[in-house]
Design brief:
single chain; alpha+beta; three-stranded antiparallel β-sheet; 5 helices; 21% strand
Length: 222
């Protein structure tokens, strides 16, 4: 009786340990699913470099943005900001580390664009190429957004694509019309010469005789 009871207790303890192990394993899986994917950086990545000329800083700023293919999708992985102006180097380092961390760990890093665009310079904004920027950080946000479009992280709207297509078709039609007009003008100019009588370019040779279709001048009548 004592032996049976001890064996029963041992089996109960083993069952409890197994259940606890299963619960711990399930908990780890659930936590892994809830946590945003941390992007592993390979040794070699693709990148694009953008030159930014801003009214908020003295020298040009070079922004390097890199990306990788992860899970069948294109993901940004890091950013580097460099300039000759060393007085702002610590600020660029902070931006580099924070934005790179967001790129690697956030499931959707698009919110960083809105956050940067919402920063206002205490000295006021500035216009560039007809667009108003609240601060230097807003210009960085636009550069990042341009990078997202360039590498295909975000797609342009169908409306924008349609407008661009119509614009290209319109320019092509104008170019063809201009070429046709130029060709017709060259053809016209090659057939006619200046008339000595009326000084119009309407003199042509027919049947070996020069005649003007404008004033009726004919060399054969002289």
């Amino acid at each position: 009786m004592i032996r049976l009871e001890s064996e029963s207790k041992i089996s109960q303890v083993e069952v409890k340990k197994t259940d606890a192990g299963n619960q711990e394993s399930n908990q780890k899986q659930n936590n892994a699913q809830k946590q945003p994917p941390s992007t592993f950086r390979p040794e070699v990545v693709d990148a694009k470099v953008y030159k930014l000329k801003s009214a908020f800083v003295k020298n040009s700023v070079f922004i390097t943005l890199s990306y990788i293919q992860s899970g069948g999708q294109i993901r940004p992985i890091e950013i580097f900001i460099n300039s000759k102006d060393l007085t702002r180097a610590p600020e660029y380092v902070v931006l580099t580390r924070l934005i790179s961390a967001i790129f690697r760990r956030a499931t959707n890093p698009m919110f960083i664009l809105e956050e940067l665009q919402g920063i206002f310079d205490p000295n006021g904004g500035s216009f560039k190429e007809g667009k108003y920027y609240h601060s230097f950080y807003a210009e960085i946000a636009e550069t990042i957004e341009r990078f997202f479009f360039d590498v295909g992280i975000i797609k342009k709207k169908d409306e924008d694509v349609g407008i661009i297509k119509k614009k290209d078709e319109f320019l092509d039609s104008r170019s063809k019309a201009a070429q046709t007009k130029e060709f017709s003008s060259e053809l016209f100019n090659s057939e006619f010469r200046l008339c000595p009588e009326c000084s119009h370019k309407s003199l042509k040779t027919e049947n070996g005789c020069d005649s003007c279709i404008e004033c009726g001048y004919s060399k054969c009548d002289k």
